[in-house]
Amino acid sequence: MGEMDVPAEALYGASTQRAVLNFPISGSGMPPRFLRALAMIKLAAAETNADLGLLEPEVAAAIAAAAASIADGDHDDQFPIDIYQTGSGTSTNTNMNEVVAHLASTRLGGGRRVHPNDDVNRCQSSNDTIPTALQLSAAVAIEDALLPALDRLHGALLAKAEAFWPVIKTGRTHLQDATPVRLGQEFKGYAGQVEASIRRLRAAQAELLEVPLGGTAVGTGINAHPDFAAEACARLSALTGLTVHETADHFHAQATLDAAIAAHGAIRTTALGLWKIASDVRLMGMGPRAGIGELALPETQPGSSIMPGKVNPVIVESLTMVVARVIGNDATVAFGQTGSFLELNVMLPVTSAAMLESIELLGAATANFSARCIEGLTATDRGPQLVEQGLMLATALAPSIGYDEAATLAKNALKSGRTIRELALERGMDAAEVDRLLDPAAMTEPGIGGKPAG
Predict the structure, then answer these.
(1) Are residues 332 and 438 part of one domain?
(2) Looking at 26, 28, 304, 416, which residue is catalytic?
(3) DSSP codes joined into one string, 229-253
(4) Is 304 assigned a catalytic role?
(5) Would you list the DSSP string of 87-108?
């Protein structure tokens, strides 16, 4: 395409510079985690090609060393191409090939030149390396950034479930008073929700680790050694500590975003689960005097520029804003499937950027939520104090006096401001029987008429 002026200090070449000029869109380059994954692919490819007799050992070693330095983050400034670029990510793959070739040539010295395409890109195509980098970087990010944060939150919630188990409060359905529940039971439920999210993310991660590498241009594997993908994946497994496999169906893997969409679905589910937990904590901490006020949230910063002494649930708000971003990214990832035409998807860069942003934001916000909110939560006396006033205590009387009569008691209690206990005794029920039926602790377990099940 003719000559191209490239910055003198650049390690990349003319093709990268053309892409820089072609895509002056957002000013944001591909995420560092994506570049690390792509560099590891080049490293694994070089070593594999040497073993297969397709590259001279010295050239392969130079390429591997260059790619390793990029994977370590030493040359992030050499990847200036915008996210909103070639839909296949070819521009970024070319950028990587050029930088690796430059560094490898310098390492070899003596005027020897490593070729970006013939050597660095051997047995590869942008069409299999870029989706592989997308899936690999997401799987590594889940492992490094999100799962540890969720493990910490899970542990914190279980600890609170145990600490709060003796605290009996009014349950709520439809945000209206319901039968009693242990505060610890609520937190045990939150811990279960996080545990389920971890399980879903593990399954998503396993699907992401079945990568398209080896399909080259259209899935047929043209210009790739038959053993290349399997051996390169084994090296990627060693580099990442995760089990990376070659896909069983290259035509599916390169032509769709199914694995990414499914994985982000698990991320979306996790995010919305965290929204539920955080929102419940915010509701139970509402007040401290005019609201529910069953929990005391840690005080992290002044809450108002005009109201002295006000403290707001800012850690919860930070997390819920991250959830909003994740839901937006989920729409982006899903819509990325509209770029799946015949043998190739052409919305890979933006899909990868959205996916990695979701994982990293959610991991950081979850860890922060654990450290600055959940681990410092305390229960107040307000929950237990309100139990005796609960109208839905009448539910425990229904097996003895019938649903209709119990409903009448509840309505009379609401109108009069008296308690269910008082009205039951006034009705003539035996005091000991009322005490047995209206024992709040008994109402937090299965059973009928105050008698535990079994």
Answers:
(1) no
(2) 304
(3) HHHHHHHHHHHHSS--EE-S-HHHH
(4) yes
(5) TT-HHHHHHHHHHHHHHHHHHH
What pTM, to 2 d.p., does this model score?
0.95
Question: Is 174 an annotated catalytic residue?
Answer: yes
Is residue 321 within 8 A of residue 327, CB to CB? The reply is no
Q: How far apart are CA 385 and CA 421, in angstroms?
A: 15
For the beta carbon of residue 194, count every other beta carbon within 10 angstroms. Answer: 25
In a shared domain, residues 25 and 168 = no
Q: How many whole angstroms separate alpha carbon 40 and alpha carbon 42?
A: 5
Question: Do residue 299 and residue 332 come from a single domain?
Answer: yes
CB 366 within 8 Å of CB 153: yes
444: CB partners within 8 A, 6+ apart:
168, 180, 181, 182, 185
Helix (H/G/I), strand (E/B), else coil: 448: strand
Q: pLDDT tens digits, residue range 371-404?
A: 999 999 999 999 999 999 999 999 999 999 999 9
Same domain, 117 and 131: no
Q: Which residues contact 428 (CB under 8 A, 6 or more apart)?
A: none
Q: Catalytic pick from 174, 264, 352, 370?
A: 174
Task: Encode pLDDT of 189-229 as tens digits.
Answer: 999 999 999 999 999 999 999 999 999 999 999 999 999 99
Dist. CA 131–CA 67, nearest whole Å: 18
Tell me, yes or no, whether 8 lies in a domain. Answer: no
Token reading at 345: 């998807």
